From TrEMBL:
One of its GO terms (biological process) is chemotaxis. Belongs to the CheD family. It comes from the Bacteria. It catalyses: L-glutaminyl-[protein] + H2O = L-glutamyl-[protein] + NH4(+). PANTHER family: CHEMORECEPTOR GLUTAMINE DEAMIDASE CHED-RELATED (PTHR35147:SF1). Signal peptide: none annotated. This is Probable chemoreceptor glutamine deamidase CheD. SUPFAM superfamilies: CNF1/YfiH-like putative cysteine hydrolases. The lineage of its organism: Bacteria, Bacillati, Bacillota, Tissierellia, Tissierellales. InterPro entries: CheD-like_sf, Chemorcpt_Glu_NH3ase_CheD, Cytotoxic_necrot_fac-like_cat. Probably deamidates glutamine residues to glutamate on methyl-accepting chemotaxis receptors (MCPs), playing an important role in chemotaxis. The keyword Hydrolase applies.
Length: 160
């Protein structure tokens, strides 16, 4: 079975059998999309909520809004059907504690909210999530069944 690594601010797709994995999700969000009928999986490792807030936004994979759109396009090109897509999300940790409550610093929380808003706008149901907390995650999306394996340090392993 092939295992494809997805880096930070990166995305990729795979048709079963195959696994997409991304390491060290902190405040970043791993967005796993899956078409269970065609067994096509897509994974994006996004860093920031919106490409509209930043001038240097050529890398579409870096942002929630453009990353999800690009991932869907790639999956459709491979044979996925948009209405079949479901999502699972992980990450969005608050990795550092701050003394003030500025939302600009709560990047993990903002990434999760932006992800939920974008998926809702595109009518893609989120089946499950493992977000928040103050620890990193490594995730593996299996194209065979759409299961998302989540490994954490100090919080064990689970499948959502």
């Amino acid at each position: 079975m092939k295992i494809i690594k997805v880096g930070m601010a990166d995305l990729n797709i795979v048709k079963a059998p195959g696994i997409l994995t991304t390491l060290g999700l902190g405040s970043c969000v791993g967005i796993a999309l899956y078409d269970r009928y065609n067994k096509i999986a897509g994974l994006a490792h996004v860093m920031l909520p919106s490409s509209k807030e930043i001038k240097n936004n050529e890398n579409k994979s870096k942002f929630v809004d453009t990353g999800i759109e690009l991932l869907i396009e790639m999956m459709i090109d491979k044979g996925a059907i948009k209405r079949n897509l479901t999502a699972k999300i992980a990450g969005g940790s608050q990795m550092f504690s701050f003394n003030n409550n500025s939302s600009i610093l709560k990047i993990g929380e903002r990434n999760v909210l932006a992800t939920k808003e974008k998926l809702k706008e595109l009518n893609i149901e989120i089946l499950s999530e493992d977000t928040g907390g103050n620890y990193g995650r490594t995730i593996e999306l299996n194209a065979e069944d759409g299961s998302l394996l989540i490994k954490t340090i100090g919080h064990g392993i689970k499948i959502i």
